[in-house]
Design a protein that fits this description.
heterodimer, A: alpha+beta, Alpha-Beta Plaits, 4-stranded antiparallel sheet, B: alpha+beta, two-stranded antiparallel ribbon, elongated
Amino acid sequence: MKEVFAIIRPGKDRETKKALEKVGCLTFTSVRVHGRGKQRGLRYSSMANDSATPQFVVMNFLPKKMLYLVVNDRQVKACVQTIIRVNQTNQYGDGKIFVLGMKDICRIRTGERGEVAIR
Amino acid sequence: MKMIKAIIRPEREFDVVKGLEKEGFNSMTKLDVLGRGRQKGVQVGSATYDELAKLMLILVVEDKDAAKVLKTIEDHARTGNFGDGKIFVSDVKEAYTIRTGKSRL
């Protein structure tokens, strides 16, 4: 079993969920987070407020959506590929995917342990 | 690679982020959380606060950088009082950049 952290653009979450359903990853937890990458957020000059000189806007953190999935070993590849395919826009800020190991799972309702508890 | 989850005081966020930036660790994710430690929250007079507002920072770094990141977060988040938070480190098997689709940090 593996746990997958995917940090994606907040507008892409619905599309991602639909695509993940198709490859059999039905369960997930999502959190609205703030994040940034190597570019340290967003810096741009804006002509707002009718000022003659452009103002420099700094956004240190940008809103993102974090999807948190626990999947079977054989599903990991399909899951990662799907997230990449749906979220790729070839622009900075598309996000990252991290895959971590997971030792045990317990379904609280029944007390089942291990892989059966995923689905 | 290592995933570092640091639960810190929200008011120390700016210091910690600036400190990490100075060390060259620009990428991170933050989320607001509620939590408590061994003191089971805080008791002020007759009022108990079961869960206190904290900030969770998530960073993924190369193995060799993990110690440096831990030190930086520790130094900047410490006030010496209860409730300074905890840092958890776990192993990351793979990391992908969605833009390029490549498997690297």
